[in-house]
Amino acid sequence: MLVIFVVPSEGMYMQLLKPSDEGLRRAAIILRSGGLVAFPTETVYGLGALASDAAAVHKVFLVKRRPTSSPLTLHVSGFEMASKYASFTNPDSMRLAERYWPGPLTIILPKKGVLPYEVTAGRRALGVRWPAHPVAESLIGMVGDPLVAPSANVSGRPPPLTPTDVIDELDDRIDAVIDGGETPYGIESTVVDLTSKPYRVLRPGLITVEELEQFLGTRFVKSYSMTPSNVERYILSKKIVFLKCSSGADPEKVISWVDMLHRERVLLVALSENAMKYREIGLEVRVLGSRRDPQGVGREIFKLLREVEKTVKEYVVIEPLPEGGLWEAINYRLIKASSQVVEVC
User: Fold this and answer.
1) What domains does the chain contain, in order, with CATH numbers?
2) pLDDT tens, residue by residue, 191-217
3) 113 by DSSP, 3-state: which?
């Protein structure tokens, strides 16, 4: 039997729904009918589809242009829902879930129960997350079943933080977006794999590796790259150069490097502590925030990546940022966006 999956075409009406009871009910009906709905989480906007509906899940891959070999995370609204599809027999998995859920932590666990092949790409493990956002929790609760909800963007593009970002990114190829305003954090969840020891961190996020190790009293292996990768890299139109130095930014060295590219061709991205020094010599500067507020800087990352494509400058140069803790997640995402990483110390 030939099965044809139809993706909503451009020009199709996309509903912008309010996060009211009525708006959430309409969104739940769309999802239960096999449609796609973007909704806010505490991290970024997710592109939701009913996880048990193979055709709906397949549409997520088509709309995002995501490789079907890349598994999706199950989004739930409670331990009972999660335990229907994932095994928590490892005591550490329950400890992490009880400590950090609902919240920005995705846990890879042994799969149980029946899900479409597309969700796990045939793997025996499953990523599960309970998002800590009232709209996400209410929506999943109204649907009554888990959703897959990867970021609501074309793969390789920066994740969306607002409904406007979703509309600009996906146009009218999905059925609805719930307007929950700007997401609170702006950095994706931390992803940990507990299916074997040593445990692995697959993606750094708001919950740091150091915090996880301290809480469980065990070591985590960092299974992600802090160098540019053509496989993982965000697809951006600008040449982004990430300057790296373990001792932090030395403005004189940064200026020397910018001068090699010619100042008039560069937009410099910097922390507030050094911004004035750069502006005094005529550089155009985009301020990310303060080194004292990494969470605030984190909220700016994906805004920045969407903004840089609109700049007339040929190059975007990012000054060295602090390392460790939440800065690991910030550096990781900026490196993913970069064409080149240069050690400057």
Assistant:
1) 15-222 (3.90.870.10), 239-343 (3.40.50.11030)
2) 999 999 999 999 999 999 999 999 999
3) coil
